[in-house]
Amino acid sequence: MASSPSCSVLAVPLLLCLLVSAAAAARFAPADNHLLACGATAPAVLPDGRRFVPDSGCASTRLRSPAPTLPSAAPNTAPQPSPLHAAARVFSCRASYDLAVRRRGYHILRLHFYPFEPALVSARFHVGAAGFLLLHNFSASAPVVKEFILPVHFDVLVLTFVPESGSNAFVNAIELVSAPEELVGDIGTLVTSGGTDQTKGLSSQVYETLYRINVGGRKVTPFNDTLWRTWVNDGRFLVNTESSNSWVWSFGGRIAYPKGSRLMSREVAPDNVYNSARSVSSQGKMKWGFPVPAASRYLVRMHFCDIVSKALNELYFDIYVNGHLAVKDFDISGATGFLAYPYYIDFIVDVEDEGTLKLAIGGSKNSRSDEPMDSGDEKLARAYQLVSTKTDY
């Protein structure tokens, strides 16, 4: 653990990336686990062990299109960054995948796009699923994975691609995985310039993942996450945080998840996320800024875990969302009743004209430590863009 000059900090992990023990890393077994290598003629196996099967021969998936769809193979002249990028399915007109659903409820949908030829770079299209428009007038000039978390209420999820007039649509790979019930809560805290208010109905929305950040830790890859997520280091998002006033902490102990809890599990966030943290002096403030589309509403989930304190109720801090005080005198151990127990808070915030989502952690006068700023607890887990446009997709 790094040491700080007489600073008793609260170790709130912000996404960390240490390897988890075999017992802790037991894989989540989703009821639905569609892994499709679109346009491929043979299965593609990823470094994390997952096996993607060709979309043309999968018994639980049906591809519908009034015109032939074209498998396209990447040229062999350059190595591909992933086995999933070796082929693509190209659509010249509206086409749909029917994906069988064994268990209704929230699912994670990931769409992989890797434009390995000019025709794919210029492709422009729309994507819809479960009656929602997910991507509008979309084009991929560089490799990208678009992730959505959406409720599925039927025994078949229809995923539709619609090319713009005179253009094509394409996709390299599709993942549709059942999400654990505890992943999406129903209640959040709406933060505005006028204060905060509890809001319900979060569990009926569709979300697009924009950022998943590991504060103070290294990159977490799908190999180390039971839901095959990627968490990136927060360094490039830090704003005006002097290195002399902040510290990075790591925790070698075991993160304790409440037994039988319907709110917290390793599927909400893995140990790798909670084993590291940033802290700041009691006089300082730690800030992050995330570029986002303006005029939108966002769900921000902040993860915390006290991995530094020696006793309960020692560290208090204030949480700011978009410059507004969201929580005053927050004590993680007071919320959980234990040290090294994970915890998260969901905030809802509107981003207007500026196009930057801002988060900050600051010290509290209630802190009982010599340097009461518990600062390492800023766990920005992820920011979701709300997708609410109903369509005929």
How is this structure best described in words?
This protein is mainly β and 393 residues long. It folds into two domains: 33-178, Galactose-binding lectin (Jelly Rolls, Sandwich), CATH 2.60.120; 181-387, Galactose-binding lectin (Jelly Rolls, Sandwich), CATH 2.60.120.430. Helices cover 3% and strands 42% of the residues. It has three helices and 27 strands. Strands 1, 2, 3, 8, 11, 14, 15, 16, 17, 18, 22, 25 and 27 form a 13-stranded mixed sheet that branches. It is elongated, with a radius of gyration of 22 Å.
Describe how the helices and strands are arranged.
Blueprint: E1 33-37, E2 44-45, E3 51-54, E4 61-64, E5 70-73, E6 87-91, E7 95-100, E8 105-113, H1 118-121, E9 125-129, E10 132-138, E11 144-152, E12 156-163, E13 169-171, E14 173-178, E15 187-192, E16 195-200, E17 206-214, E18 232-233, E19 246-250, H2 271-274, E20 276-280, E21 285-291, E22 296-305, E23 317-321, E24 324-330, H3 332-336, E25 342-351, E26 356-363, E27 379-387
Parallel strand pairs: 1-3, 15-25, 17-18
Antiparallel strand pairs: 1-14, 2-3, 4-7, 5-6, 6-13, 7-12, 8-11, 8-14, 9-10, 9-12, 11-17, 15-16, 17-27, 19-20, 21-26, 22-25, 22-27, 23-24, 23-26
Poorly predicted ranges? 1-25, 370-391
Structural class: mainly beta
Overall geometry comes to elongated
Work out the helicity level: under 10%
What order do the helices and strands follow? EEEEEEEEHEEEEEEEEEEEHEEEEEHEEE
Membrane topology: Single-pass type I membrane protein
Pfam family, one: Malectin_like
Organism: Oryza meyeriana var. granulata
Subcellular location: Membrane
